[in-house]
Each structure stands twice: as C-alpha cells, then as structure tokens.
Amino acid sequence: MTGVYTVAGGDGSERITPDVSEAARMADDDDSEEETEPAVELGDGPAVEGAPLARVASRLTWPQERSRVIDREGDATIRTPDGPRELADVLEAVDTTYFDRRQTFVEAVEDVIGRGPVRTAE
Fold this sequence. Notes:
With about 120 residues, this protein is α+β, with helices and mostly antiparallel strands. It has two domains: about 5-35, no CATH class; about 55-115, no CATH class. The protein has five helices and six strands. It has a two-stranded antiparallel ribbon with strand order 1-2. The chain starts with a strand and ends in a 9-residue tail after the last helix.
C-alpha cells in the first residue's frame, strides 16, 4: 500500500499508521468541496419567534432545580409547536422539581409543549 506504514511495538503488537502527507492532502480535498457547496440551504421564509429549547438548555449547567432554571432563564421565550411561550409558564406545568441532566429537562419541557415542527409567523 502506498503511504501506509506498519510499526511493530516492543510487546509484539503492530500498529498501522497512514503517511501524514497523504492524510493532509486528503483533508485538503475535503475542504475544497465544502467551500463550493453550502451544507444547508437557508431560505427567505417567515421568521420564527423565540429560541429553540436546545439553545436555552445549553446555556445552563446540570444538574439544576426547577426554581433555579426559572430564575436564570424563566423570561426566555421558547419555540413550541403551538407558537412561542415563556419558559417560566411552561415550567409551572412540569411536575419535575429537579433536573439531573440536560436531557431530563428537555424531555420534561417537551412533555408539556409537545414535539414537532414549530409554527412560523404568518
């Protein structure tokens, strides 16, 4: 094989490593493709009010108590399938008082607001 080297370890193991110059050349080829075509085509559609729930959740560290989430992010407007809502209002309907991790928080909020596409401004 061109550009591939086998190195024997002192313990009898073998390790195959690629030629660094070959790997770098291949990476350069990948970059040129990314520059010519965008990954996602964005349109001129209507605006969506509020922030995605994932963005609000990413601003917090976990674990968190519900009351602390309300104190820190309660005034944030989040996107829901039924239109924008304040996070504090949504959390009032959540039974969980302690979120041990981000996913627990997201699931509890989605149980209240629903899952699915968000409504856009008409």
